[in-house]
Structures are given as structure tokens and as C-alpha cells.
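Exercise 7b. C-alpha cells:
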């Protein structure tokens, strides 16, 4: 994830640039302050957007097409205040570290 470029850059294993995923913004699909990402067993890309960004997790197809997002700013269940890290369990459970909520 690219914090200042508001995108995800994809490279080959030998470092050759392939493409960017997503645009900058706050609607459904664009990224604002992407912090961390993980890729599930199907190749879907899950991205946390925090640090004064969208405070959500956005999900993209492996080809870069936006699929879905969840979360919003706040302290209730399902809300975030600075989601930063993200991980997946073998059964597909998504774990998100949130630096602003207790």
C-alpha cells in the first residue's frame, strides 16, 4: 500500500512495475490513506484505510476491480478509528488492528 500515493502498486517478484490498483478518494472504491494489505487464498486484496483516511477495509479482485468495503469511522462494533494491520486466518476470518479504539 502506498500511504502518500493513495494506491496499491503491483510489481513482479523481480521488481518490475505491473500496475496501480484504485484511485484516490473517499467514495466506494477509491482509497484514502491505505496502510496495510493482505491477499486471501483466492487472490482478493484486502486493504486497511486509516490514519485520517476512510477508516475501513476495502476489497479488490486480483485484477484490481473494486468489490466491497466494510467499516466506518467510530467506536461501535464494526467501526474503526485508524485501522492499520490486517491478517487472515486459514478459515478466512479477517483480523484488523485498530490503533484508535480500545
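Sequence design result:
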Amino acid at each position: 500500500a502506498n500511504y502518500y500515493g493513495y494506491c496499491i502498486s503491483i510489481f513482479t517478484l523481480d521488481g518490475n512495475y505491473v500496475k496501480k490498483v484504485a484511485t484516490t478518494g473517499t467514495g466506494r472504491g477509491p482509497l484514502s490513506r491505505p496502510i496495510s494489505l493482505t491477499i486471501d487464498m483466492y487472490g482478493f486484496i484486502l486493504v486497511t484505510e486509516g490514519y485520517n483516511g476512510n477508516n475501513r477495509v476495502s476489497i479488490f479482485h486480483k485484477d484490481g476491480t473494486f468489490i466491497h468495503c466494510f467499516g466506518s469511522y467510530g467506536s461501535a462494533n464494526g467501526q474503526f478509528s485508524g485501522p492499520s494491520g490486517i491478517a487472515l486466518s486459514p478459515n478466512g476470518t479477517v483480523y484488523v488492528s485498530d490503533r484508535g479504539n480500545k
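Instructor comment: Residues 42 and 62 are 8 Å apart (CA to CA). The chain has a mean pLDDT of 89.
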